Amino acid sequence: MFAVEDNTEDFMKITYTNGIMILTHHSMDYPGLNSNAYILRANTELEIPIKPVSIVKPKGFHHRNRENQLVPLCFTDKENPLEYFPAYRNSNCYVNCRIKLMIQICGCVPFIFDHIAEAFDIPHCELDGLQCIRKNLIYIGVAKDIQNKNFHCACGVPCEDVEYNGLPNSIPLMKANFS
């Protein structure tokens, strides 16, 4: 990838930094906190060789959680407990929890989840709904397992997973003077 741009203000409008953010993730993952992020800065070349690592856990095994409940060691796509995602992935589980909390607290989802709103007939957030989400972000921003009297979110790991590790290399581009 190349970025050749003299006016870096356009980049800052998008990423709040001098460059474009690139996220690498599994095709069935919702890009988010677990995604690898790289910044392509102006006047640079960025190479990101990707090294996939396959992770396979034994299926059918269970363990006891902190509440002494018997739970699967890992989830297969057939055992997928997620309402809004067809494939069980760890990041999808936490996004699934966020969506459920947005609906529970604010009654809607923002337009970034348009495909889910359409498929499950969930209202899109108008301005008041977006304000509700912003006001309750501390509760909605689920990034770990939580349990309280109103909500439970426990995300396990998938039985089969692929991690994509990037090895970025950034090279400054030289300005050519063809006059």
Automatic annotation (TrEMBL):
<keyword id="KW-0407">Ion channel</keyword>
<keyword id="KW-0894">Sodium channel</keyword>
<keyword id="KW-0472">Membrane</keyword>
<keyword id="KW-0915">Sodium</keyword>
<keyword id="KW-0406">Ion transport</keyword>
<keyword id="KW-0813">Transport</keyword>
<keyword id="KW-1133">Transmembrane helix</keyword>
<dbReference type="GO" id="GO:0015280">
    <property type="term" value="F:ligand-gated sodium channel activity"/>
</dbReference>
<protein>
    <submittedName>
        <fullName>Sodium channel protein Nach</fullName>
    </submittedName>
</protein>
<dbReference type="InterPro" id="IPR001873">
    <property type="entry name" value="ENaC"/>
</dbReference>
<keyword id="KW-0739">Sodium transport</keyword>
<keyword id="KW-0812">Transmembrane</keyword>
<comment type="similarity">
    <text>Belongs to the amiloride-sensitive sodium channel (TC 1.A.6) family.</text>
</comment>
<dbReference type="Pfam" id="PF00858">
    <property type="entry name" value="ASC"/>
</dbReference>
<dbReference type="GO" id="GO:0005886">
    <property type="term" value="C:plasma membrane"/>
</dbReference>
